[in-house]
Amino acid sequence: MSNDKSSEDSGLTRRQYVAGTGAVAGVSLAGCMGQSEDTGTDGSSEASLEIVHWWTAGGEQEAYQSLLTGFQEAYPEVEVTDNPAPGGAGSAIDAVIQNRVIDGNPPSTFQIWPGKALSPYTDEVLLDPIGDSVWDAEMRDAYLDGVIELSRPAGDFVAVPINIHRLNNLFYNVSVLEAAGVDPATIDSPGALVTAMEAVAAETDATPMAHQTAAPWSSLQMWESILMGEADVDSYQALLEGNAEDQESTIRSALETLAEYAAFYPEDAGSISWDQGNNQVIEGNAAFIHQGDWAAGQYGGADGFEFGENWDMIPFPGTEGVYHSVIDSFVMPTNNPSPEATEKFLNYAGSVDAQERFNPIKGSIPPRTDVPMDQFGAFLSRQFEDFQGSDAQPPTIAHGTGVTPATQSALSEAFANFNGNLDVDQAFEGIRNAF
Ligand code: GAL
Q: Strand, coil or helix: what is 167?
């Protein structure tokens, strides 16, 4: 899919952006000041609310639309301009946002991971603080503490998280596994998954692992899961803190396992998007997929593909008890073209109503603790129980909460190369340099 093909370009752009952050901010702030005079300040001529996001894939589109419907019911006076930048895991959004910021022409709000992903913006004061206008006492009371911290990585509140996805899932097609004679309960390590995939390859016509390599993020995230499954959360956390040298053997082992998995990808892995891969699971043409539970959001929209009966999921082998969290948020860029409407939208995104509408369709659980869970269905209710019972909820690399965009971008490049050559030595060097 063309969406994901843009990722390598976006990796370059990301590097340039991060490398030149100071310069970008200088231009941007100057541009911003000039532009706010043009827009008018009396409120009556406010621009429409422009939202940039990447939720155009299966399930995500519907979840986003239901968020907008709720927002429009709450604030019918606000005109919304929907402006998607399609590409899984935001692989195309940075280029768009970067150019807009350089031109002093930011959108009203955009989708971004909270935590470290915000750092180029907070370093250069490109986001307005929303601690008073949005994060009132009611919201602060309702949100999970860990999510609150991610919303103010540099002190001031700058983001409104709307969901919590789990990354360490292994989804599977029940009939394909039955045909292969594979009992998912026996897949208790990343290595045991190789054995299961061998059985699928030997006993069925299905692709064992519906993985995409058109963009590097899915391999990066699978490597994160393998590393945690083979080692533990502490090793993973040590890596996030930059101790790549100390983790050399765990890093290399996870790369070797990932290289073994590559033999089981679809023939068209290099040209499909994550949701096209997921479709292969839905259609019974593939057995497994490792994805965040946005994949379950897509299953929700697939006719005759029912949880338990047709599909199920186990935590990625070796990572039971871990809820590897992926979180999305919205922000208020400085020089906002529609400050009042943006504030309304951020207030809405932080509400029970928004999170109750959005998350069941998206395949995520809410970051507020007071959202009624009765509409979340059997799968997300189980995920929610797993979350509540989890020992650790570490942030991710591929989805930006746990590393800066510069590190993430360097790792994406390493995994783009690894997808092509499966060269463990070269990938280890890339990972060491990235950290
Ligand atoms: C993640 C994002 C999810 C989902 C996924 C696939 O980065 O947090 O909401 O969109 O990418 O594109």
A: coil
Ligand 1 pocket mutation pick from 1, 3, 67, 165 by most atoms within 8 angstroms of CB: 165
Confidence of residue 45 (pLDDT cuts 50, 70, 90): low
Site to substitute for ligand 1 among 94, 167, 274, 328, most atoms within 8 A of C-beta: 328
Tally of CA atoms within 13 A in the half-sphere of 403 that contains its CB? 27
| Closest by CA position to 382, among listed 310, 318, 302, 296 | 296
Structure tokens at 260: 């073994």
Q: CB atoms < 10 A from the CB of 245, how many?
A: 9
Q: Please identify, by atom number, the ligand 1 atom nearest to the C-alpha of residue 88.
A: 12
pTM of the shown model: 0.90
Ligand 1: centre distance to CA 216 (Å): 14
pLDDT in tens, 14-43: 323 332 233 232 222 223 333 333 343 444
Helix axes 248-261 and 424-434, enclosed angle (nearest 10): 130
Residues in contact with ligand 1 (CB, 6 Å cut-off):
54-55, 60, 88-90, 165, 292, 294, 326, 328, 399
Helix (H, G, I), strand (E, B) or coil at 98: helix
The Cα 217–Cα 290 span in angstroms is 12
